[in-house]
Amino acid sequence: MIRFLVHRTTIAVLVALTVSIIGFGLLRLSGDLAAALAGDTAKPEQIAQVAHLYGLDRPLYVQYLDWADRALHGDLGRSLFDNKPVAQLIGERIGVTVQLSLMSLAYALAIAIPLGVLAATRPNSWIDRLSLGLAVFGQAVPNFWFGLILIIVFGVTLRWLPISGSDHFVNFILPTVTLGTSVIPAIMRVTRTGMLDALDSDYIRMARAKGLSAASVLFKHALRNAILPVVSLTAVSLGFLLGGSVIVESVFALNGIGFLAFQSILRTDFPVVQSIVVFVSFAYIVLTLLSDVINAYLDPRIRIG
Amino acid sequence: MTSIERDRLTLPTGPAYELEAPSPRAVMRRRALTHPGFLFGATVMIGTVLVAIFAPLLTSYDPFAQDLAQRLIPPVWSAKGSFAHLLGTDGFGRDYLTRLIYGARISLIVGFGAAGISGIIGTSLGLIGGYFGGRVDSVVMYLVNVKLALPGVLVALSLIAVFGGSVTVVVTVLGLLFWDRFVVVTRSVTQQLRINDYVAAAEAVGASSRRIILGEILPNVLNHIIVIASLEMATAILVEAALSFLGLGIRPPTPSWGLMISEGRNFMFFQPYLVAIPGVAIFLLVIAINMLGDGIRDITAPEGRN
């Protein structure tokens, strides 16, 4: 187990390092940063002055190390747009994104797992077909468009729910359905496949032969084994939801980090974009590391193999 | 037991057997013609390709021609609609059906282009990692992990903001961002194929690694690659629509379906069809591509289901 932990953590750190370099490179891609900072009318001397002031005249690797050092101490630089510290901007908005992601995940799990289990216990029944249809829908519907349709139906025609803002719980209902629907198909398919495999196994036949109740066989024996891949998929999905919230937050004008990233891209405010990219990547890396460790703990075959 | 002995033991020989067994091609054709998902997917896909190619013959309108006197005419099924504009007109008085037809070109170019680029990158990495194993494989998996950790849509948005929203840039960026599934699948299939006798035989006669990978392994991985390519094509079409909708993908006045939804959004409370129609088009095309991919998998390798 220790060996597994060390190995897996080393990879995670290496990946995190690479991602931070890519995130840093993203800022440089935007062209001459000093020229952008100095403005359109700046003379070459003024640009050089700005470059010196911000340390942009140093070699790239020095700038990276400096940036990484500050980032590790919580200083992500300042926004080029309103000069606020990036860490503060992200801190103010991260709550909305986390709430949206967690609600979407809860909604997706609440629909996908029961449907996946039912579909596996009754293959080719109407419930299996319904879950398949839902999976096809969730996979193919453009989620920004689904959000707009929900706004037209529930916000404008029926007037049941608010269509923008992020102050209240009800503001999150439509965005949650929009975002969560996109991760339902994968979770449902993995649950169904896992359950089908488990139900077909010798230990389930054994459990049934011993005369255990159907509920006990299903939930205590089959689901516990089938749920393992769902655990890792859940972690991956949460990372995906954090990153994918950029579209849904923009549709519903939810003031989270996705919307902030979108606005910052439009304003070419690259310090903010760069920090959010690296931040979301790190969240994903930590989540998948956690899920791998949990899985290894639950399933000895993984940590030995 | 060698595989030759095993074949002798299990396969009955003789004229009767040879007469009865249908060729693999015939088996596949029968499976294809009885697979409703495949038939639906193939029909919609071929239809869309034909519409995209023959767009100028299908409509007499110019997709860019604005006519402000003809603004916001509703579709033909509405009371105020007319047969002159079957799907109505948009906020600039452009014929909506014409824009929809020309928009199919963008979606297909983006889908095929991005899936092609990511397919080449991902398949190469997967073949190399799966064939050589060891350190090489670790490097490949490390690259996949880095790719998975990056928020794809966000990176795509930033890159397109920097390089501009031409079709070429969008295709390239999407192609460079969505190759991970190709790697994962190609790699695991290659690992399984690598231990086969025909690979050992090729090695024994001194074939180079390159020749074994391209000549022995790649042909056997191809049907898996086609399935992943269909999935990635669908993803690319969805992401392009989302990027264009956000204003950071294809630039106006090019008729991209995502962009049409974005432009229709200004009128969505009174002319909801402007938002609904292009969305349904994306939805149907993506469903068709997914069903086509699933169908190809069922037909070429039915054991791979679930």
Topology record:
The complex is a heterodimer of chains A (305) and B (306).
Chain A: H1 2-29, H2 33-38, H3 44-53, H4 60-72, H5 86-121, H6 126-140, H7 143-157, H8 173-181, H9 184-199, H10 202-209, H11 214-252, H12 257-266, H13 270-298, H14 300-304
Helix pairs in contact in A: 1-13, 5-6, 5-8, 5-9, 5-11, 5-13, 6-9, 7-8, 7-11, 8-11, 9-11, 10-11, 11-12, 11-13, 12-13
Chain B: H1 3-10, H2 15-20, H3 24-33, H4 36-53, H5 55-58, H6 96-132, H7 134-149, H8 152-163, H9 167-177, H10 180-194, H11 197-204, H12 209-245, H13 257-264, H14 273-300
Helix pairs in contact in B: 3-14, 4-6, 4-14, 6-7, 6-9, 6-10, 6-12, 8-9, 10-12, 11-12, 12-13, 12-14, 13-14
Structure in words:
The complex is a heterodimer of chains A (305) and B (306). Helix content of chain A is 78%, strand content 0%. Chain A has 14 helices and no strands. Chain A has helices at 2-29, 33-38, 44-53, 60-72, 86-121, 126-140, 143-157, 173-181, 184-199, 202-209, 214-252, 257-266, 270-298, 300-304. In chain A, helix 5 runs parallel beside helix 9 (184-199). The termini of chain A are close together. The relative contact order of chain A is 0.14. Chain B is elongated. The two termini of chain B are 32 Å apart. The longest helix of chain B has 37 residues, at 96-132. In chain B, 44% of the residues are buried. The mean pLDDT of chain B is 84. Chain B has 306 residues and is mostly helical. In chain B, helix 8 packs antiparallel against helix 9 (167-177) and helix 10 packs antiparallel against helix 12. Helices cover 71% and strands 0% of the residues of chain B. Classes of the chains: A mainly alpha (305), B mainly alpha (306). The interface between A and B is large, with 51 and 40 residues.
